[in-house]
Design goal:
By secondary structure, the protein is an all-alpha fold. About 85% of the residues lie in helices and about 0% in strands. The structure holds protoporphyrin IX containing FE (HEM). The site of protoporphyrin IX containing FE has 24 residues, from α1, α2, α3 and α4.
Length: about 140
């Protein structure tokens, strides 16, 4: 049962990854910056809906397994809050721009930062799961 919950959690993490990559490509789909901003607004709802689903699925596994709070769980909660804030700041910055070039540059910068944070967390979880010694 717990393994199944963690499986759903890690599947949602992979989908979240895909959504971030799609978010990075959105500004390339149109030359009209107003249209890009409209598309980014839809992306924001989808992104925040999914990252909340990731966090909720993790919380359910955490509570269900009566796990003790450790560094790994704290790191995932911090990543969840950090990336949610980062993506919101990105959108607020993009709203100020009318120039497509600035929108593309801002979008790529913030999205690559979000992606690298999630990659770092996934590498940590892989090393943790592979190593006999728990890292947290
Ligand atoms: C964006 C945020 C998050 C990411 C990217 C993330 C990522 C991951 C990854 C990659 C794993 C390993 C999955 C596996 O072993 O196949 C994992 C496991 C887990 N996550 Fe998260 N997680 C996030 C948020 C959370 C939150 C908010 C909680 C809840 C408190 C949570 C609780 C758990 C638990 C209980 C496990 C299984 C036990 C463990 O391996 O420590 N996660 N998470």
């Amino acid at each position: 049962m717990f393994e199944e919950m963690v499986l759903y959690h890690s599947i949602l993490v992979k989908i979240l990854f895909g959504i971030l990559v799609v978010g990075m490509l959105i500004p390339f789909l149109s030359s009209d910056s107003n249209k890009i901003i409209k598309q980014m607004r839809i992306y924001m709802f989808v992104f925040h809906g999914f990252i909340t689903a990731v966090a909720f699925s993790g919380l359910v596994a955490f509570v269900f397994a009566k796990m003790c709070f450790d560094l790994s769980i704290l790191a995932m909660i911090v990543v969840y809050i950090f990336i949610s804030i980062l993506e919101s700041l990105k959108y607020l910055k993009i709203l100020k721009y009318n120039d497509k070039g600035k929108i593309v540059a801002t979008n790529i910068k913030y999205t690559l930062l979000s992606i690298s944070v999630i990659v770092a967390l996934i590498i940590w979880k892989i090393v943790e799961n592979k190593s006999a010694i728990s890292l947290s």
